[in-house]
């Protein structure tokens, strides 16, 4: 639950300094819940993926891309796709490595739409931790922590915790809300990862003032 939208092919992120070229394993989280729909009530996750993902992967020099959906239960979701190698080795001396990279990014973008379509068939919404485990299992040996691109409005609709109903004006209120959210829950292994987001604060049914305090949360 963090941050602002991706503008063009650059994004706002939370985390450590940018990693070196072709050394970072990336994870993509796509929101298949109702708030990610393509009508005037959602943030249009599909359109945002189509407009931003390839340029983002190019700019960030991603070495690989893994996937996870936001569905009713991300851990148990049947939506799966193997990580895509975004920096494949040429098989012959005549193969152009940059052409191979472009093709890989295009394949990765196509897979992201497949994941989104699958996630939309599974009702509900949660903030998944599975992507963290996937990244830890698939990260390469080049060093540096993996990073995540999440395409979602980041609204939390868990019946046990609804962020829009929590007072977040003061530090004490935010601390209380965080403790309430974390009580009895497993934490995804996100420590050290950079998180870029697309769609946060862009739900057309919400007023911008709604997110005051949420940013600090």
Could you characterize what this model shows?
- The termini are close together.
- Strands 1-6-5-2-3-4 form a six-stranded mixed beta sheet, sandwiched between helices.
- It is α/β, with parallel strands linked by helices.
- α1 packs antiparallel against α2 (97-120).
- It has helices at 45-60, 97-120, 130-138, 171-182, and strands spanning 13-14, 24-31, 62-70, 84-85, 147-151, 194-198.
- The chain is globular, with a radius of gyration of 17 Å.
| Fraction of residues in β-strands | 5-15%
Morphology: globular
Task: Return the average pLDDT rounded to an integer.
Answer: 75
Rounded Rg:
17 Å
For the sheet with most strands, the description reads: 6 strands, mixed
Give start-end ranges of low-pLDDT stretches: 1-21
**Helical percent range?**
25-40%
Can you count the helices?
4
* Strand line-up of the largest beta sheet: 1-6-5-2-3-4
Distance between the termini: 8 Å
Number of strands: 6
Q: SSE string, helix = H, strand = E? A: EEHEEHHEHE
- Helix and strand content put the structural class at alpha/beta
């Amino acid at each position: 639950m963090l941050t602002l939208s991706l503008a063009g092919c650059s994004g706002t992120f939370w985390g450590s300094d940018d990693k070196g070229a072709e050394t970072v394993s990336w994870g993509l989280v796509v929101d298949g819940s109702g708030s990610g729909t393509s009508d005037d009530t959602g943030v249009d996750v599909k359109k945002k993926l189509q407009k931003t993902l390839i340029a983002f992967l190019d700019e960030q020099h991603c070495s690989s891309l893994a996937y996870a959906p936001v569905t009713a239960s991300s851990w148990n979701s049947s939506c799966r796709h193997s990580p895509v190698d975004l920096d494949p080795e040429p098989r012959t001396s005549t193969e152009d490595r940059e052409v191979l990279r472009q093709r890989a990014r295009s394949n990765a973008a196509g897979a992201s739409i497949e994941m989104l379509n699958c996630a939309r068939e599974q009702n509900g919404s949660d903030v998944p931790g599975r992507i963290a485990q996937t990244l830890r299992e698939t990260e390469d040996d080049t060093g540096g922590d993996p990073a995540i691109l999440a395409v979602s409005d980041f609204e939390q609709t868990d019946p046990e915790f609804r962020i829009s109903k929590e007072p977040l004006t003061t530090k004490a209120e935010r601390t209380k809300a965080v403790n309430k959210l974390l009580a009895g829950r497993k934490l995804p292994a996100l420590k050290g990862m950079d998180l870029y987001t697309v769609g946060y604060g862009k739900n057309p049914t919400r007023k911008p003032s709604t997110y005051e305090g949420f940013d600090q949360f």
